[in-house]
Design brief:
It is found in: Cytoplasm. This protein is an all-alpha fold. The protein is about 85% helix and about 0% strand.
Length: about 220
């Protein structure tokens, strides 16, 4: 006979997956809006940010109710803790997608910055795919895929560094346009933060399976 807590945990998983799909779509939309200069979509992303926040609050409330009423232990408790931690990372990823949308509203698409924009577009696609893949790993409880996060973190850092270095070069060559270039740096930083959120979810997938806290993010970063 299925336990009540199993039904409740399945419902939490369903809520998490629904929220994850919304966040992944938001990341994708924000990246595309920035690249093509779609201000309407960017403004919609900012205006609808509360939808992600509302889902986080509802999921957290339901999780705390399970803890209070069911008093889960061992693997059941790990399930609840995983969701509580991972949903926070999802919400943060949504915030960073909103920040990309905000930055894109002020982005000056100068011809000499086209190479930077192309790199950001590539990084945006990489980031959105990483989030979707990590969410799929969460649904499938695929902790082996989550363990590949360390290599993915290195790839993400390489893309982030390349964008940063090209922005610095553009600033040196066009010192009067520093303010126009800074939003590109901000967008790249937001994408890097979304990568970190996705890797955090990977760490919680591994925790749910093994009970161990791991670190998927190497100690690397933009080289100034």
């Amino acid at each position: 006979m299925e336990r009540l807590i199993d039904q409740q945990l399945a419902q939490l998983d369903a809520q998490f997956t629904e929220m994850g799909v919304l966040v992944a779509k938001t990341i994708d939309a924000a990246g595309k809006a920035m690249v093509v200069g779609d201000q309407r979509t960017a403004k919609e992303i900012v205006a609808h940010d509360h939808q992600i926040n509302d889902r986080e609050m509802k999921l957290e409330q339901d999780a705390f109710e399970i803890i209070a009423l069911q008093q889960p232990v061992t693997s059941d408790l790990r399930e609840v803790v995983t969701i509580l931690k991972a949903v926070s990372d999802l919400e943060h990823a949504g915030d960073h997608a909103r920040d990309i949308a905000l930055a894109s509203l002020n982005l000056q698409r100068e011809a000499h910055l086209k190479p930077v924009l192309i790199l950001i577009e590539q990084f945006s696609k990489f980031t959105e795919k990483l989030m979707r893949d990590m969410l799929m790993a969460y649904v499938k409880k695929d902790w082996h895929f989550a363990q590949t996060g360390s290599q993915l973190a290195i790839e993400a850092n390489e893309q982030h560094v390349e964008i940063y270095q090209k922005c610095v070069l553009a600033m040196k060559q066009n010192s009067e346009q520093v303010e126009q270039i800074l939003p590109y740096v901000a967008v790249a930083n937001s994408l890097e933060q979304i990568v970190e959120c996705a890797l955090n979810i990977g760490e919680w997938i591994i925790y749910r399976r093994t009970g161990e806290i791991v670190e998927l993010k190497p100690t690397i970063g933009v080289q100034i």
